[in-house]
Amino acid sequence: MELKEKLIASFMAFEENVDVNADLHDIRTSAIKNFETKGFPTKKEESWKYTSLNTILKNDFSVFPKKDNAIEFKDVKKFFLNDVDTYKVIFIDGIFSSYLSSTTHDGLDVCLMSSALTKPKYKMIIDTFFNQVASKEESLTTLNTAFANEGAYINIPKSKVVEKPIEIIYFSTGNEAALMVQPRNLIIVGENAHVQIIERHQSLNENPVLTNSVTEIFAQKRAIVDYYKIQNDLQSSNLVDNTYIAQKQESRVAVHTFSFGGNITRNNLNFYHQGERIDSTLKGITIIGDKQHVDHYTLVQHATPNCESHQNYKTILNDSSTGVFNGKIFVEKEAQKTDAFQQNNNILLSDKATINAKPQLEIFADDVKCSHGCTIGQLDENAMFYMQQRGIPKKEAKALLMYAFTSEVTSSIKIPELKIKIAKIIATKLGVNLGFDL
Amino acid sequence: MLSIKNLHASIEDKEILKGINLEVKAGEVHAIMGPNGAGKSTLSSIIAGNENYEVTQGEINLEGEDISELAPEERAHKGVFLSFQYPVEIPGVSVTNFMKTSINETRKANGQEEMPANEMLKLIREKSELLEIDRKFLSRSLNEGFSGGEKKRNEIFQMAMLNPKLAILDETDSGLDIDALRIVANGVNKLKSKDNAVIVITHYQRLLEYIVPDFVHVLYDGKIVKSGGKELALELEEKGYDWIKQEQEA
């Protein structure tokens, strides 16, 4: 049976097994209908022109993990942000792991989607926020909505500054021959509240995994959200990350996406403005090789006046890897005095590497500042010569130069321990020890 | 120290150097002057090992060893330093970290241990004082947003840190105001010893008032057409380069 049929067939059984209210049932039912009509995206669609899921979909994925799989903390310690105390919401093969997690209800909610979806005390919040910003048209998002059941639920009340970063990690054990997981995260950040979140998907062995994740983030007035996505997975893992962000006035949301590994990675990152003087930041570093593929598909919907968006994506491609950057900025007629900036720089280290870069600006307001720049190149030979002249061997010089290339993105990481971790991953990717902490 | 024999070099099949001969002994300061486009920067680049140029004939010997086939970093490890006319900006890497990498890679290549941290700090303090560089400056990204003068002063700071055998200063005076010029020249003069040598490449005589050369060479159309003492620089300043051109074309 093809994956699409398998998913549709299992939907009925899934709905019967979970205890849901009628509203949620309706949302799921219309979502599966949308997926049934549209199916998995293909290259025929403009927005999927450069990314094909065909080869992945041939795997016979289990869509529900069979059992509770346990893992030892020591085996996965390196995937956590150590040296700093954090809240943790951890899943193993899609199932919550209380052993690895550190959740809270003390002054804020850092807990599970499954309880938020089923417990009556959360009903009002779920009715207000769940599936309110996620697309009801995009097929993979609706597929996730249809099966939405587990993930992280985070609710930060008004004026709460969360001192500890929150880590959301999805581990795949590989106990299944092939596994498809569909995490669903809901994050609500109240007025004047501030939170830092790190999200990661990590396979522990080479069995194929397909993750179709949906995250909804609601930033209320003057809320500050720093969100970091670490994608440094094994080459058997595939990730479609669908993130939808609704911002109220004067809120500031920054999403940093670090794509260092995986087979096929697709990031759909969507920002919607619902108030004035909003600030949105979208930054990314992609460093891949072999036949890996990373596709960044961003949208910033400027719908209100006096808002800013800043995009900066850096890509380094080696071997036969491929990268895609499609950045869409939409400025509605009402969105006067918009300041939208987009920068995308790409370095190709091999003749066989490919980048497809496509800035898309649609501007309907007349008093706006929009700029975009895109470069594709090799490493600057003058800079190489300069560093070699100072005694730095070619390999290290190359690495230092690539590190310098990514520094506009790493410089705005707000968690120092994360900054060091990212710098170390970059150094490992570049195959060097630079002799100092970057 | 440096012995260049019949050096021919080209870039994209265009011959730039057409038979250079130059002998520089330890303890000497040589100035290479000449009009724009004569090949001055090309010569310095080639001595340092820039792979964009192809050496078609001749030899470059450093302390008796032909270095013309060596990579730029290998030449640097043997003590060749080039102060760039246009130093490159490296965002995200501080001056201090860059120097640490530079020094330790050089030490590693020469079979030495990494420099201990306290020794490194002491060296940085000493040399930044010599070049009158503010300590805050050292934690800034290398050359990023530096003024022209700051970049040049930073080049000489790096030279002081690395203590090369052969230093080539390529148009180090350009972009420097008179105070910065004095500081830079003073730095170079303090680093001079009987064991090292300096080649000053310049279009103007100005820098040579502060770094006094033992020999002055005039480079024109890829060849050294005139050599003399420091008085040659003054003559060039007075007469300009036209008389050289006329002499050559006559």
Automatic annotation (TrEMBL), chain A:
Q: Which residues form the SUF system FeS cluster assembly SufBD N-terminal domain?
A: 7-168
- Segments forming domain SUF system FeS cluster assembly SufBD core: 175-405
**GO BP, one example?**
iron-sulfur cluster assembly
Superkingdom of this entry's organism?
A: Bacteria
- Similarity comment: family membership: Belongs to the iron-sulfur cluster assembly SufBD family.
Name the UniProt record assigns to this protein: Fe-S cluster assembly protein SufD
Its ancestry begins with: Bacteria, Pseudomonadati, Bacteroidota, Flavobacteriia, Flavobacteriales
This protein's gene is called sufD
UniProtKB/TrEMBL annotation, chain B:
Q: In this protein, which residues make up the domain named ABC transporter?
A: 2-246
Cited InterPro entries: AAA+_ATPase, ABC_transporter-like_ATP-bd, FeS-cluster_ATPase_SufC, P-loop_NTPase
Q: Which domain of life is it from?
A: Bacteria
Alphabetically sorted, this entry's keywords are: ATP-binding, Nucleotide-binding
Q: Which GO terms describe its molecular function?
A: ATP binding; ATP hydrolysis activity
**Pfam families to which the protein is assigned, alphabetical:** ABC_tran
Output the SMART domains linked to this UniProt entry. Answer: AAA (SM00382)
As for family, the record states: Belongs to the ABC transporter superfamily. Ycf16 family.
Q: What is this protein called?
A: Fe-S cluster assembly ATPase SufC
Q: Which organism is it from?
A: Flavobacterium humi
**From which lineage does this chain's organism come?**
Bacteria, Pseudomonadati, Bacteroidota, Flavobacteriia, Flavobacteriales
